[in-house]
UniProtKB/TrEMBL annotation, chain B:
The keyword Heme applies. Keywords: Heme, Iron, Membrane, Metal-binding, Transmembrane, Transmembrane helix. It comes from Kaistia terrae. The lineage of its organism: Bacteria, Pseudomonadati, Pseudomonadota, Alphaproteobacteria, Hyphomicrobiales. The chain crosses the membrane at residues 15-40, 61-86, 98-120, 141-164, 184-210, 222-244, 271-290, 295-313. Pfam families: Cytochrome_CBB3 (PF13442). This is C-type cytochrome. It comes from the Bacteria. SUPFAM superfamilies: Cytochrome c. InterPro entries: Cyt_c-like_dom, Cyt_c-like_dom_sf. Residues 382-460 form the Cytochrome c domain.
């Protein structure tokens, strides 16, 4: 039966006005996802430069520099994820918990998978020099870490996607069938491309602030390192102009119109174009002027990330609002019935008590 | 009812939460709340004495804590959320509605704590090399981290205390009345010295790894950390006493007096014994470590550590113990149904309001009685399906079909190999909460009791694992009428 389920919500009031909860959700989620981008992108770039380091030692040193940043970024990524998790639990209780339960085995496996990825990240970083003689094993660790970091977001994404479509809840059988719902892979590709792009910008920031001795230790010129950062930022961003529209076009239809969503993403694309142009210009700049546009690029990236978060939220609202009205009505109706049944039971109890006393 | 039922039929749902939560508590208490002040104190002492050996030792211990707390520690914290929201979404969702701001504040402190532990660990060597002023700043950072760790625990304990005894919250429905529940302060007072004592024992264990046997410094370090441990151990007993003398008041509203009291006396006696054994063991081993440090084997420190784990485990059990048959005292039963809902559900039936049905697998459909005609078979399967839905919605938060704490295990113990007819089992289940005050009353109506009985009869023969929604999905109830427990003639015949 492919009926649309209408569950009841938790019959307790929201702990705060909805706009505040939405603010908590969107703002802190964006902060979380930026650090997730740094973490996943950092792991991918470390792996890539370690492979290049097999032929040229200084790439291995560069890989070590990048690997050193993952330790802090991954901890901040996790801790920043808790706030938005709390908010999504509160605002979208019915939707989020349903998606969690339907993909439960994979959902709970996030915990051991992240622990494994983090422990391996530490082993990879802190035993870097001790494992010089086991280079392939060491690189193998980086590969496993990268794969884990790539897979875990897919579980999250599948859940966040599934929660939007109550009409699919009755047809999904576990994680893999939820994975096949429309839009998952397009959104995933969009996310994966953002990882090296954001990490590229992070590297520009990192290599601009390191002192000369630290830069010299890498075996590269500062300009080269900054340029590499911009290249990592630019090319995946350029690819987003293909993947982004695919993600937008494959969004399942909603009952509510999504003009505002399209408008927000449209503005984001325009700002991204300006940002990509500046990134590309930076990759071509000489040593004297490279980094000149770093602050404007970061500001534009902030605007783009903010617009993406806003657009996603507007779409989420468009997808679930009609269904949420049904849930509200059903909850209210149920509570009326509960009150009535309790009154009835109380009357019956009084009646039987009177019967006993007479 | 309103969420697809996540179910682990072998392990049991509660053990998923328990496994993750116990690991988290051990790491949180032993390596964060108790250990951070100890490490900061070591660093301070080394700086005061201008003895770099203290500094090195403190850093090594911190590094171990850093590796474990930022991986297993942090993720098991998130894991508690994940597992509870899978196993009992009704309770966690209700708690979030009440405690959102407490959790939000706890999260902000947690963010601070993580930033501080990152800063404290990653700047240690650099700031130490920068001279005494930087070192003093670093030590202050250590104490700030210790304080943040304690505050996160202090906030969470309020929520744990609330789950056992909501105090006045049921009548005065506000956040602060929930926080100031009567078990809060005693519980916090117990956990604080417990964490410090655990940290002391773990630190002594690590000292044996990080120092050499012939090194005089090993003796000094063991003696100092031994004194730290001895200083806190008596408070574990004192606060433990305060805690469990507060328990009966909290408990008496939940449990029937006679049986509840017997159970409580048993728990109390055991707790006393374990607490005394643990503290005596700690005193003996620590005294030995101080007086004969050279003879102290590593394994000797494992003994008080295991004793502390035993005591902590028994202590944590009390939360389960007190709150039953509720998951949120007086408000929500362990099956996730609100006390207030019972009148309606017992009148109209649970299935009338269930959003989903839990499909039977082919394996679950096997082992039907021989010689059934096709219509009888269909009717029988329909009754079993409905019985399974009753089981999934009302029993599975605590019980499995055939695994840990299985319902078939309990029935086997009570009724043996005689046929578990619906009359037999339904009769028992209807009144079991009088005999077993830990059990919530059965929430459904009479027809559903019979359907559950039919399903249990089927489980006596059919040993197939019962899958959860995570593997077989759910069937959405069409119209409520189609799923009403009002029995059709055929179903009624099948139940007989």
């Amino acid at each position: 039966m492919n009926a649309i389920p209408v569950p009841r919500d938790i019959p307790l009031p929201m702990p705060a006005p909805e706009p505040i909860l939405i603010g908590v959700l969107v703002i802190f989620f964006l902060m979380h996802i930026v650090f997730v981008n740094f973490m996943v992108g950092g792991a991918l770039l470390t792996f890539w430069y370690q492979l290049r380091g097999l032929k040229e030692k200084r790439f291995d040193d560069l890989a070590y520099e990048i690997a050193s940043t993952i330790t802090a970024n991954k901890s901040i990524a996790v801790v920043l994820g808790v706030g938005p998790l709390l908010a999504i639990n509160t605002i979208y209780t019915v939707y989020f918990y349903t998606a969690n339960a339907l993909t439960g085995a994979f959902w709970i496996s996030i915990i051991p998978l992240v622990i494994t990825a983090f422990v391996l990240t530490y082993v990879h970083k802190y035993l870097w020099h001790q494992m010089e003689r086991m280079k392939w094993l060491h690189i193998g660790l980086a590969a496993v870490v990268s794969l884990l970091f790539l897979f875990i977001p897919l579980i999250f994404l599948t859940n966040i996607n599934l929660m939007l479509f109550p009409e699919k809840w009755g047809t999904v059988q576990g994680f893999f069938s939820a994975l096949m719902l429309p839009n998952v892979f397009a959104r995933y590709a969009h996310f994966v491309l953002a990882c090296p792009a954001m990490t590229g910008l992070f590297l520009v920031w990192l290599f601009r602030r390191k002192d000369d001795a630290e830069i010299a230790a890498t075996g590269f010129e500062r300009t080269e390192l900054i340029r590499k950062g911009y290249q990592w930022a630019f090319w995946p961003t350029a690819a987003q102009f293909v993947i982004g529209p695919i993600a937008l076009l494959t969004l399942p239809e909603t009952q509510e119109p999504i003009h505002s969503v399209i408008a927000v993403f449209g503005v984001a694309i325009l700002v991204s174009l300006g940002m990509a142009h500046l990134m590309f210009t930076e990759t071509r700049r000489p040593a004297e002027t490279i980094g000149k546009s770093f602050v404007p690029i970061c500001v534009m990236m902030l605007v783009v990330v903010g617009l993406m978060g806003t657009g996603r939220h507007l779409y989420r609202e468009a997808a679930v609002t009609p269904h949420r009205e049904l849930v509200r009505a059903k909850t209210a109706d149920y509570m009326r019935k509960v009150d009535e049944a309790n009154r009835q039971a109380a009357t019956a109890a009084e009646g039987s008590a009177e019967g006993v006393s007479q | 009812m309103d969420f697809p039922v996540f179910h682990l039929d072998f392990l049991g749902n509660r053990y998923l939460i328990a496994g993750i939560a116990i690991l988290h508590v051990l790491i949180n208490h032993g390596l964060a709340v108790g250990m951070m002040p100890l490490i900061a104190a070591m660093e301070w002492y080394g700086h005061k004495k201008q003895d770099p050996r203290w500094d090195k030792l403190a850093y090594k211990i911190l590094f171990v804590c850093f590796l474990i707390t930022t991986t297993v520690g942090a993720l098991t914290g998130v894991g508690i959320w994940f597992s509870v929201s899978l196993v009992n979404p009704y309770s966690i969702a209700s708690l979030i509605r009440v405690f959102f701001w407490a959790w939000f504040t706890e999260w902000l402190v947690f963010v601070t704590e993580v930033c501080l532990i990152l800063a404290y660990t990653l700047t240690w060597k650099k700031w130490t090399a920068q001279g005494p002023e930087s070192k003093k700043r670093h030590i202050r950072l250590g104490f700030a981290l210790a304080f943040a760790s304690w505050v996160t625990m202090a906030i969470i304990v309020a929520i744990l205390g609330f789950m056992m005894d909501p105090g006045n919250w049921l009548t005065v429905n506000s956040f602060w009345t929930g926080v100031m529940n009567p078990l809060y302060i005693p519980q916090l007072a117990f956990r604080t010295p417990l964490a410090a004592t655990m940290a002391g024992i773990i630190a002594m264990f690590l000292i044996l790894f990080f120092t050499k046997k012939q090194d005089q410094f090993r003796n000094d370090a063991l003696r100092a950390v031994g004194l730290w441990t001895l200083a806190f151990a008596p408070f574990v007993l004192v606060a433990g006493w305060w805690y469990y003398t507060s328990v009966p008041d909290a408990m008496k509203d939940n449990l029937g007096v006679s049986l509840g009291t017997l159970e409580f006396v048993d728990w109390q006696t055991k707790f006393l014994q374990i607490a005394v054994i643990t503290v005596v063991t700690i005193l003996l081993v620590v005294q030995f470590a101080i007086s004969r440090p050279k003879l102290l084997p590593k394994v000797a420190l494992v003994v008080p550590f295991v004793a502390i784990l035993w005591m902590t485990g028994h202590f944590e059990r009390v939360r389960e113990f007190i709150r039953k048959p509720y998951v949120i005292g007086q408000y929500m039963y362990a099956n996730g149904l609100r006390v207030e809902d019972y009148a309606l559900l017992q009148r109209d039936g649970v299935l009338t309001y269930a959003t989903y049905s839990n499909p039977l697998t082919e394996a679950e459909k096997a082992e039907l009685p021989n010689g059934l005609s096709e219509p009888e078979r269909t009717a029988r399967l329909e009754a079993i399906q409905k019985g399974k839905d009753v089981f999934m919605n009302t029993c599975t938060r605590c019980h499995t079909g055939h695994g840990v704490n299985s319902i078939t295990g309990h029935l086997q113990r009570m009724f043996g190999d005689q046929p578990w007819t619906p009359e037999l089992t339904a009769g028992y289940i209807e009144s079991m909460h009088y005999a077993q005050p830990y059990m919530p009353p059965f929430p459904g109506n009479k027809a559903e009791l019979q359907l559950l009985g039919t399903y249990l009869q089927h489980l006596q023969q059919n040993k197939a694992p019962i899958p959860g929604a995570q593997s077989v999905g759910v069937i959405v109830s069409g119209a409520a009428a189609a799923r009403s427990p009002e029995m059709t003639n055929q179903t009624e015949a099948a139940v007989q």
